[in-house]
Amino acid sequence: MKFVNLKPIIYVGLVLLFLTSCGENKSTQNNPVEKSINDLLSKMTLEEKIGQMNQLTGLGLSDEMQYNVREGRVGSILNELEPTVINELQRLAVEESRLGIPLIFARDVIHGFKTIFPIPLGQAASWNPSVVEDGARVAAIEAAAAGIRWTFAPMIDVSRDPRWGRIAESLGEDPYLTSVLGAAMIKGFQGEDLSAPNSMAACAKHFAGYGASESGKDYNTTWIPELQLRELYLPPFIAAAEAGAATFMCSFNDINGVPSSGNPYLNKTILRDEWKYDGLLVSDWGSIEQMIPHGVCADLKEAAELAANAYVDMDMMGFAYINYLKELVESGAVSEKIVDDAVRNILRLKHRLGLFENPYVEVLDEMPFYTESSLQKAKQAAVESAVLLKNDGNVLPLGSKVKTVAVVGPLADAQADQVGTWCFDAEPEHSVTPLTAIRNEYGKKVNVIAEKGLVYSRDKDKKGIERAVNAAKRSDVVLFFAGEESVLSGEARSRADISLPGAQSEMLTALKATGKPVVLVIMAGRPLTIEKEVKEADAVLYAFHGGTMAGPALADLIFGKAIPSGKLPVTIPRMVGQIPVYYAHKNTGRPGANVDLIDDIPVGTLQTSIGFTSYHLDAGTTPLFSFGYGLSYTNFDYSDVKLSKNTISRGETLNVECTVKNTGKYDAAEVVQFYMRDKVAKLARPVRELKGFEKIHLKAGESKTVKFSLTEDDLAYWNEDMVKRAEPGEFEVWVSPNSQTGKAVSFYLK
Ligand code: GLC
User: Fold this and answer.
1) Are 243 and 322 in contact (CB under 8 A)?
2) Under a CB-based contact definition with an 8 Å cutoff, are residues 479 and 521 in contact?
3) Max CA separation in the chain (angstroms)
4) Are 363 and 87 in contact, with CB atoms under 8 Å apart?
């Protein structure tokens, strides 16, 4: 028997063993989940790996779907909603596929599953992270009971263009407010333990820059300099990653010509290398395939190659990976390491959700939908989401002198429209409308006359207006519920004219002509250009689309059982031509001031006589209502702004405090806002930037000292060297009720 000198083989084996153990990074060795992932990965064929990267929309228990699941050709299914079907598909995956890897079931649960909360833009008007977290928690409990363990929310695209239909899903125009509320929503969806059966993986979307869609037209191109990307659009995603968002989603748009689904700088350099994010990145629906119409890929194979090499882990309904990734890996066009890393991210999510241990949903006799607790949370959210924009003569809250109210308008009793966009699973019959709530809650106090006047928001048939006018004449106060049908906002629902649709404005004029006080309540998915209507109405309550319990919330606000506390999370323009218009604007070299408006210009005026500053002749220098604006039934006085120091050094923290007093007669909440300005910097800085806020509750006559702080990082901005850095010099701060008022107080950074 010939002895073979085994030493060299043993030596090489030991070296290889050492290298592979180094190859598995330290965390793998010490982390049982990572070890389990790598063990499973090592058993998977290339086809099975690619199957995990494929996400399909539900087809029930069709033969095609059963085949895909059994063969391991699908890693996640969205839009499957029947728990028994979900469990059968899961059984096929766990018990009949070769490796038994469980599926993740996903759905867009954006602002509620069955109990619908205000649209996210409305929730943002609450400036209340706990309201937002509560809403997401209720949504998770309801959706997870149906077997949904992954939602495609929060949508944290900073949105400054109200023409864009998806502003409805956003948390508004400010990166700081969006960051804080987006993190709260993630916490609500994911709960304390992501593996708990009533938790859902959140999805920070759409990564990135989608809110910059040109002209507010959905899916449109964006042109975003990296400085603006870093300063405006990315901060909420950093906050989401820090909040533990389990997944991210690519955006449809291109940034400067590069679609996000094919953008390795965004998805690898920033997301993975800079932020060390280890969650899953899923494409948007067909966004990989859509790189063909984008004009950056000739065919689906190229799209699969570009997306895989741009580190998109999972292909939602694009059929790119499942059809072409195998040959791309075999040809070397895509490395198998990229596939392995993608599959690790997918398996890690499944571990974090506890699906390997508990893959099935408990089929309940009674689903936890519409519980009293959930409905009360939805009502509270709707109360806090309403913004009081005008209240001349304190017409609100309605007092005991009001014996008869006319409840009119196309949104007064519109169960399907009041829940707003992106609530596929809502059941309109559960919506409590303003008319129903006023009748039920206040019908003993006042006589209610109801006349829609217009059947729906776009209705141009004015024949019903006369009946509404007659109702108004017989009333003491007119409550006009106007706005947008839900279909006029959301995805692919952009409007070039964002005025009140249909004949609503004419209807308001006719109601006003009766001489009765008119309370205008707007239920919409975006800011609307309502300058004329605000002038005509005596009071204006902007309620966005308030969800299932919008009616009871608005009834309580109108009759004073609840006090408005909402503040605008987005600017309301006077006219669409002002867009983009937002509070954190630059000052320019000729800031607009003291201007003559177009109708004030005397005939024959010389070209040079009405000044040269930055404004529109027909709109002036300001929007209709600014970010952060909102009234109450009481008043708040801000005083004694104090700084801990007048000059701070690098690394020091500046503390700021202010006394706020409720000087009115109602106990109420106030959102105290904290803004900063860098007065002189190498790059021109915004005239104000939100750096903090606190919602406080004050009894009539009560005062409270509110405290904020600024660190050096808060003073920093991304500069021309692509470095985030604070510059020495003068800064100003405000503690104020909105983005336009308050007294500036200066301090210096040495
Ligand atoms: C849609 C949306 C995205 C959503 C996805 C799944 O097109 O852009 O926000 O989560 O498809 O429905």
Assistant:
1) no
2) yes
3) 116
4) yes
Pick from 535, 432, 418, 436: nearest CA to 482: 418
The CA distances from residue 320 to 49, 122, 291, 417, 660, in Å, are 14, 37, 11, 37, 58
Residue 423 CA to ligand 1 center (angstroms) comes to 12
Ligand 1 centroid vs 397 CA: distance in angstroms? 40
Q: How far is the CA of 530 from the centre of ligand 1 (A)?
A: 30
Please write the tens of the pLDDT for every residue from 437-491. 999 999 999 999 999 999 999 999 999 999 999 999 999 999 999 999 999 999 9
**For residues 562 and 550, what is the distance between their CA atoms, to the nearest angstrom?**
13
CA 263 to chain centre: 23
Catalytic residue among 284, 413, 459, 556: 284
Asked if 150 and 190 count as a contact pair (C-beta separation under 8 A), the reply is: no
Q: Which domains does the chain have, with CATH numbers?
A: 45-352 (3.20.20.300), 636-749 (2.60.40.10)
Task: For 704-741, write each residue's pLDDT tens digit.
Answer: 999 999 999 999 999 999 999 999 999 999 999 999 99
Scan for tokens 């949104």, then name that residue: 411
609: pLDDT strictly greater than 90: no
**Ligand 1 interacting residues, C-beta cut-off 6 A:** 108, 152, 205, 284-285, 491
Q: Is the dihedral of CA 585, 588, 594, 600 positive or negative?
A: negative
pLDDT of residue 6: 46
Q: DSSP letters along 487-538, please? A: GGSSTT---S--S--TTHHHHHHHHHTTTS-EEEEEE-SS----HHHHHH-S
284 is catalytic: yes
Give me the half-sphere count of Cα atoms (radius 13 Å) on the Cβ side of residue 501: 22
pTM of the model: 0.95
